[in-house]
Amino acid sequence: MSREYPSQPIVGVGAVVLRLTDAWEVLLVRRANPPSQHEWSIPGGGVELGERLEDAVAREALEETGLEVEVGGVVEVLDFITREDGRVRFHYVLVDYVCRVKGGTLAHGSDASAVSWQPVTGLSVSGDMPLRARTLTVIQKAVGVASGAK
Question: Residue 48 falls within a domain, yes or no?
């Protein structure tokens, strides 16, 4: 099935990769491909046929960031739908998980043009690394989940 102008929604996953230094930091990728090309976001992508959600999160994080992650709990389930000329161009049902690094070497993969650790307190919908409001909300919610798990 095509990801663009699909015949049905596509299941996707996101990895909200957090670390605690002096403050909470989140790993962001700059998308290299549509949808959201050139935008900063959390690592993630489509679930492959026969793949468990948690395995898809770990695979996508590794492919996009070079890091192996431990996948925690679900943070949020949401829709990502864009339309063009009255047609649905992209429709993903996304399941975002809180994650932490367990190994690997930070480097962006082919689906990302850049990767960066950023302090959560400095994130916004405007500025040098703007995020979509929904992405910012998911990150803040993940910090709450991670803080409660300490």
Answer: yes
Which residue range(s) make up the domain with 112? 10-148
Tell me the C-alpha distance between 45 and 144, whole Å.
23
Within a domain: residue 94? yes
pLDDT tens-place string over residues 3-41: 888 889 999 999 999 999 999 999 999 998 878 888 999
Secondary structure (3-state) at 70: strand
At residue 43, the 3 state secondary structure works out as coil
Model pTM above 0.85 = yes
DSSP 7-32: SS-EEEEEEEEEEESSSEEEEEEEE-
- CA separation for the pair 3, 65 (Å, rounded): 22
Q: What is the dihedral of CA 90, 17, 137, 42, to 10 degrees?
A: -30
Residue 43: CA count within 13 A, CB half-sphere: 37
Residue type (1 letter), 133: A
Rounded average pLDDT over 122-146: 93
In-domain check, residue 4: no
Q: How many domains does the chain have?
A: 1
